[in-house]
Amino acid sequence: MKESSILSYRPQPGEYAWTFGGVPPVRTVPPGTVLELFTEDAFGGRVRGVSDLVTKVCQFPFVNPQTGPFYVDGARPGDTLAVHFVSIEPARDWAASTTIPLFGALTSTHLTATLQEPLEEVVWIYEVDRAGRTVRYRSRYGDHTTELPLDPMHGTVGVAPASLEVRSSLVPDAHGGNMDTPEMRAGTTCFLGVNVDGALFSLGDGHCRQGDGESCGVAVEAAMNTVVIIDVLKGLSTPWPRLETDEYVMSTGSARPLEDAFRIAQADLVDWLGRDYGLHPLDAYQLFTQAGEAPVANVCDPNYTFVCKLAKRYLPGQAPYRDAHARLRGQARDYARAR
Amino acid sequence: MKESSILSYRPQPGEYAWTFGGVPPVRTVPPGTVLELFTEDAFGGRVRGVSDLVTKVCQFPFVNPQTGPFYVDGARPGDTLAVHFVSIEPARDWAASTTIPLFGALTSTHLTATLQEPLEEVVWIYEVDRAGRTVRYRSRYGDHTTELPLDPMHGTVGVAPASLEVRSSLVPDAHGGNMDTPEMRAGTTCFLGVNVDGALFSLGDGHCRQGDGESCGVAVEAAMNTVVIIDVLKGLSTPWPRLETDEYVMSTGSARPLEDAFRIAQADLVDWLGRDYGLHPLDAYQLFTQAGEAPVANVCDPNYTFVCKLAKRYLPGQAPYRDAHARLRGQARDYARAR
Amino acid sequence: MKESSILSYRPQPGEYAWTFGGVPPVRTVPPGTVLELFTEDAFGGRVRGVSDLVTKVCQFPFVNPQTGPFYVDGARPGDTLAVHFVSIEPARDWAASTTIPLFGALTSTHLTATLQEPLEEVVWIYEVDRAGRTVRYRSRYGDHTTELPLDPMHGTVGVAPASLEVRSSLVPDAHGGNMDTPEMRAGTTCFLGVNVDGALFSLGDGHCRQGDGESCGVAVEAAMNTVVIIDVLKGLSTPWPRLETDEYVMSTGSARPLEDAFRIAQADLVDWLGRDYGLHPLDAYQLFTQAGEAPVANVCDPNYTFVCKLAKRYLPGQAPYRDAHARLRGQARDYARAR
Amino acid sequence: MKESSILSYRPQPGEYAWTFGGVPPVRTVPPGTVLELFTEDAFGGRVRGVSDLVTKVCQFPFVNPQTGPFYVDGARPGDTLAVHFVSIEPARDWAASTTIPLFGALTSTHLTATLQEPLEEVVWIYEVDRAGRTVRYRSRYGDHTTELPLDPMHGTVGVAPASLEVRSSLVPDAHGGNMDTPEMRAGTTCFLGVNVDGALFSLGDGHCRQGDGESCGVAVEAAMNTVVIIDVLKGLSTPWPRLETDEYVMSTGSARPLEDAFRIAQADLVDWLGRDYGLHPLDAYQLFTQAGEAPVANVCDPNYTFVCKLAKRYLPGQAPYRDAHARLRGQARDYARAR
Description:
The structure is a homotetramer.
Chain A: E1 6-9, E2 19-20, E3 27-29, E4 34-39, H1 54-57, E5 66-72, E6 80-90, E7 94-98, E8 123-129, E9 134-138, E10 145-149, E11 153-158, E12 167-168, E13 172-173, E14 176-177, E15 189-193, E16 201-207, E17 224-233, E18 242-244, E19 248-255, H2 258-277, H3 281-291, E20 296-298, E21 304-311, H4 324-338
Parallel strand pairs in A: 1-4, 3-5
Antiparallel strand pairs in A: 2-12, 4-17, 5-16, 6-15, 6-17, 7-8, 8-9, 9-10, 11-14, 11-16, 13-14, 15-18, 18-19, 19-21, 20-21
């Protein structure tokens, strides 16, 4: 691997992307580049107090701004883009959540249409204690407060889609996008199948934390300072976004109904365990049945997302994806040491 | 209304569109134009015999070619495009259907993923008797044959999507697209909400006929010679594709799971009955419950599609959409008379 | 076939059944019996005016009363019960419909739970013109009225379930039950798989008519005077309720999500076409794709129900189920002539 | 609370129950009773080697035998039954799993019907090391083996259903039943709404462990020696099964599609947090969105099951259900000490 270069990039107003695909790259970078990035929050930083209702301060479709896309030299359709998350840090000392009319799991929506009145639009502002590694929840209709652990992540990470499509940054699908899984945290490597030359990688939608399913549709939304290292794995395909940490291999699926997201994620993991660990599909199915974990990522977006994960300690010793995770992990340590 | 002009257009190889949005217009036309169009079949005319397997003769994503898009002068976001189908006639004396691995309602798919083997890939060729108005079904594993009525329609009709998106011609959604409803036949007016300047209308995927749900995923696919008249209704919005005939008003919904498609179509019809007929939502809901028809369009595409329709004879006398359907119907008669 | 006997039966208060299974038979009858029955409406006749709210006048689980069950001599598990509908006539000159809080397709429910307020509870009373064969719809929030054709049917028809279960009369499943399909009208023969000795057949939930999907959850509900002829087909199995008319064969499926109901109905029809018409599954799948009809029955009950039907004119000449439908049709004509 | 009595009960052959409801009680016990129970595995102990295929050694509907039901004195409809799990220990040194044709998440099923061939029927036998607290997975098509932690639980726990119903022990619903959640382990208190006099509690389907979703439909199935303490909470209702541990409150939902199970569980938790912790519904919704956990229990049974859980450390200090969990936890400690 060549010596790594470092690119720092903070989008100017007007430079954000609102889709995956359909946007010219903001920069071209070689594989191995360390990207030091700023990402805005899902509301473009406009929800700052409890009276900043999204329906007033934001204008669709200009929500969920993405930083990028980056054209990665040498990435071609059929390759895999590896994105290793070195660090994700809240850029401000506050963060926001809200209900949005006809959006979320416990309300009717534009897709699950009913004749009922929407839920009230309410904003919650969180104090972010970056030193103490907590965010403070404060109820709006009572006086309950509690500290929740800071666990920063990116809700939206992806590349340009296949099939000549361009997708809103609100949508998760096989190209990644708005998957909203807390597994997308520092220490994770995300593998994305490349669909177009240069891959056209972008990311955004930082969350200080979120629960399983991101139920009301909006996590603890925050601008982030994020460092990732990107790499290209030539000739290796990745049908759905996959994740790897020191301890787990994971596949994702994004679809409706929710059982289809579960099926995709798990069938993809079975495929992966076959290719990189030599397990027969039925043996992998059985092992997952007993030892698999399946954290639900979102039950609110245009597609719902499931993650299916298996601890590496239950698998044979092989390293998947040509040991890319371990290698990028090492590069991340070198980068951290050098700062 | 200004005097109508007539545009005849047959795409050259290389001129077909594979998406809604993301493609420059092939022609610009004023409202009121009569379009005489040729549309290729969903396989680009390549499935001509039982040994022409789609997985061999077609290359994804180059399936379901669309004729267009047409830029309609004066159409602006928030307006409605009206498309009246004057005639739809098979261009050849044969048509094709097939199973496609992991596509269709009675098989697992890329979204409803299982570990089972796909169904066998089998092609059925239909003889089209344009004079007798039938197509001939012939079984592949036995000797059963039967004549089915010719009932030509377009599976795919739409405009450029909202939210800066570009969607594959295989996808139905709020912009129209691959809805696969037999209601899209001669005599019908289709109303589409305009999302971008010029609307960017295109159509394709002619079917000699199809059953409810287009279950195996592939109808009696045929190239078509089709005449439509297009018009623009300024300042009238259309959230989901709506259809009107002399006898019915209809709304469509495209989503998963299938009940959500049903909900969307029906909630949209309730909205429409409120706006154009003055019915209270609960009264419209009740009337639909007792008198509504709901033919399922497709249960095979990336979104499933339902049509909800109500006979005009059960409604107050108002004409919806400024009487556009009756007006276009008259223009179609004039056009037919003049030929 | 033995000469038919006739049994007239009108349940006394306290004699109605509220479940399929779990109830002793009210009568034992031989195959071939003509049953002249009275069935109460789904609300036990208690919703008579617009101020009779179901939540006030009915007490769960005592809704949807069933007439029966009847023990049919000689019916054994693995056999099929054939039920031919000779006539279904409204017993009164009014009928009722209503919204019910958290019940119906365009509202959240106990299963599709949201935090929104329920829809308002509103009653519509219909005048039934038995001579003119219409019912009169009258809006509650405006002054729109219209005549709808009378098309009487039974929403609920079934036998005791398999697997030692007892199911509420509100539930449709493989045993039949609350399928709510308008196809269950006079002239239809319904085939039900026998799960327990005597089959334990019952029926209720008469509708003067309903639309596709019975969207608000409540049709034009009416007490009925109904005549059926029952028969037993020894050694013939029926996995899901099937229907036959002079023109159609039909299968039903009841499940969630709605696409699963569609899949069940259609896969069962494919099985049936294989057994009784000799069609290969892929040929039957193809024929249904082009010529099948799929009226959605209900999208409101604990399981949703689809009907998949194919016109006999597209099939080889065989008569299914040992020609039971034609035979019962003849017996019905004899019965009608003798009255 | 009265002094606790202890009842030891091991069913004789012929004494197992195959349904919830519809079965006379095996014993009557007062609230506060400690039950020392034996439960058979889901296959009645008949799958002992890799050639013991379920389709050969078991006969439907006689699968998933339940120990019980127990009539609990004083339990009346509207009350809550509390069941505290003191200990769950495998009764044998082996356990079994298997694929079953047309059952599981990654196969078509009788409900998600396709025309494909079923997956192969394959059995895996696990060695259970009760001292070492592990089970040993051994692949069938390769030579991979691995130790998985023993984490015993009951897949099936419930009471007689509401609405006069009787449900197969394979079904999870509002009465509990075959929920298949690993949260049903020692240390947990399960709250079940009482639907009939005496509640009629039973349990079975021990698992040495299972992964999220119990994907292939069959966990590491084992006979168990289990100790529970039962109690009755008068006048407190419980719409869906709820669980409590020292650290968490949890609600369950069982339905299809899977998002409806998620919605039910979460809406029920929001209700519970309102009743017992005084949180406004929107505040509870928000708190769950950021801090909730949602382990999916099963994606294979007739209804799918989700658990929604929130750590007590994020809640105000109140003890729910009149502090029943803490009280029963204390009683469990006394019982353990006395042995």
